[in-house]
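Fold this complex.
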Amino acid sequence: AQKITQTQPGMFVQEKEAVTLDCTYDTSDPSYGLFWYKQPSSGEMIFLIYQGSYDQQNATEGRYSLNFQKARKSANLVISASQLGDSAMYFCAMREDRSGAGSYQLTFGKGTKLSVIP
Amino acid sequence: DTGVSQDPRHKITKRGQNVTFRCDPISEHNRLYWYRQTLGQGPEFLTYFQNEAQLEKSRLLSDRFSAERPKGSFSTLEIQRTEQGDSAMYLCASSRTFPTGTSGRAGFNEQFFGPGTRLTVL
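Structure:
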């Protein structure tokens, strides 16, 4: 089974509108972290936001917020007030703690291509 | 700019040749990771170093692949006898070690990525 599922291959959003990018994950580990990265056409992965499995509140970073629903195993990224520069690939990723064994590898989804329309 | 750097940015080689990539992490980061990204996919983990010790290796890292981090600073990834299926973007990332208990049990450990090396095997 896929550990990270991003069901939207592509999304369009009007400039200045909000958009939600979906991410569901699969793990039996009670301790894990969820990440969102942005990858512009230049190729570099840019960290956006992090949510720990024990965090009580949804993470927020500027225009980015993470809608974390633990029971549903979803970690959707919300981008408010979209800008033209937000056009890029967006990847959801997970790091599992493996019951304290401490794995540091990230498992990525296939990504969602976001296009912001002027 | 003191971010993660990778060299070369692009490499074209013929099948059967050996190639070597270099990654320079952020200076205070003791953890270094290699990922591979093929077209239309997310990055896939290859291997991870803490200081000079290689602590995790993916099954994707066949015998033709070898990674080193001899002094716990820069790292090299070598692919021997390249195959067309090796064509991909090779990404390097680095992160700090946070004390246990910081930002939760799993820890934050944000990974900072370099610009990648795009390999094309003809």
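The interface with chain B takes residues 4, 31-33, 35, 37, 42-47, 50, 52-55, 91, 93, 95, 97, 100, 103-111 of chain A (CB under 8 Å).
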